[in-house]
């Protein structure tokens, strides 16, 4: 990687205060990764120099804590100050991008005193250094995480109208997916409710757009990458987190069936190899939420299977940290509020730290706890192939708490291995395919992967898998309501249609309930 005077932020600040926790899905090490802070590290952000002129240009080998050389500038009001470009030049910097819809700009330093000067520009509320963060270790494919090929070419398949049943039983791996049945999705499909016409933007890593189950539903023209130097259909490894997530939303029924198998997928690549800058995610949200008539994706729903956990109370004594946290929170609030104002529903994963946020009040989750975001916890069975249908069991890794979780959805649960230490083999017998794996593998979510061809599939678990399931349910709901509902209507209808598990009413594990696709789609009440 090429750098010019690269700056590194404190290890403690990265590992504890800003640890990304989107989806832990490594099937070899099924315990969520826990970053341990170096006790000798200094947590005082103010001691670290962001005045250096280094600007990252190669993002192929990013490391957690790398400073991109770019600064997020937040205006005091809804509009950017007049003559901002000239003011930034006078402060020793260069304006490289603006987001006038939320009053945010991006600049780079061209002089060593830029960071000190730029905050004094009239009309500027804050200047935040942008950082590279790692939110999950990308899953590795192993003998216990078999990547399966369809070994069959795709034939033409007609589309479905409401009232005409969707043929989901002809999928190659029919009988392998417990998650759709857990939320009564087949009942919606049988009524012809498939999410057709609803646009779902998936903000994630790379998307294998030619996958046989994704290609029919991918809007290639609208799909973009906000990661410099990479296209939306590029990533590393053979899993590709974004590809797995997209399949949960809208796999077309060739090999498997997504919750909304005829919804439109807009791939927005804002992470690479599991890492990303805040600017990339911010740009992804704004692009997805902007109408097509104004140059955006025109999404109805945004799914973000990612998140940052900020330990703000333990670091509150550090003035630089306080300012950094507040600035990030305000910036993301502006982005999610922009989506809300444009009628776009934002759904995010709650995280995989197995933490009760009602107790750990020192933690804040970005973007799950930002304004107008629906946060999803994960459930999954233990021993599904053995006959256990406890689909509503909270996954052992899922973050929870009434202050965090709005709803729950199937995300997979490898507790047989991770909690019980059970690695015994089981055999799944589907309609056309049979496979033998450790029993816990089948309790995870089966979806599309990059693999080595256009027809690969595999298992994973995490709230990253639960969030797209909920997004699929919302797509079904929108289809039967003329293709569009505003976010307030979506939240209200989810509350009415979800299954009340756990304590009556809103509770720390399931929020307002476990999503139900058929009820959300009005198929039955």
Structural features, described:
With 525 residues, this protein is of the alpha/beta class. The chain folds into two domains: 52-130, Alpha-Beta Plaits (2-Layer Sandwich); 166-521, Peptidase S8/S53 domain (Rossmann fold). The protein is built from twelve helices and 20 strands. The protein has helices at residues 11-17, 84-90, 114-118, 179-182, 185-190, 241-250, 278-289, 319-341, 415-418, 463-479, 487-497, 517-520, and strands at residues 19-20, 67-75, 93-99, 104-109, 124-134, 148-149, 199-204, 224-225, 264-269, 275-277, 301-304, 308-311, 345-349, 363-366, 373-379, 407-410, 425-429, 434-438, 445-449, 456-460. The strands form five sheets. The chain has a seven-stranded parallel sheet, sandwiched between helices. The chain has a five-stranded antiparallel sheet with strand order 3-4-2-5-10. Helix 6 runs parallel beside helix 10 (463-479). The longest helix has 23 residues, at 319-341. Belongs to the peptidase S8 family. InterPro entries: Peptidase_S8/S53_dom, Peptidase_S8/S53_dom_sf, Peptidase_S8_His-AS, Peptidase_S8_Ser-AS, Peptidase_S8_subtilisin-like, Peptidase_S8_subtilisin-rel.
Global mean pLDDT: 85
The assigned structural class equals: alpha/beta
Cα separation of the termini: 56 Å
CATH architecture heading of the largest domain: 3-Layer(aba) Sandwich
Count of helix runs? 12
> For the record, what is the CATH homologous superfamily label of the largest domain?
Peptidase S8/S53 domain
Total count of domains: 2
User: Strands of the largest sheet, in order across it?
Assistant: 8-9-7-11-13-15-16
Q: How much beta, percentage-wise?
A: 15-25%
CATH topology of the largest domain: Rossmann fold
Q: Spans with pLDDT under 50 lasting ≥5 residues? A: 1-48, 137-146
Tell me the name of the CATH class of the largest domain.
Answer: Alpha Beta
Main beta-sheet strand count, sense and barrel state: 7 strands, parallel
The proportion of residues forming helix, as a percent range, comes to 10-25%
Outline type: globular
Number of DSSP E strands: 20
Radius of gyration from the alpha-carbon trace, in angstroms: 22 Å
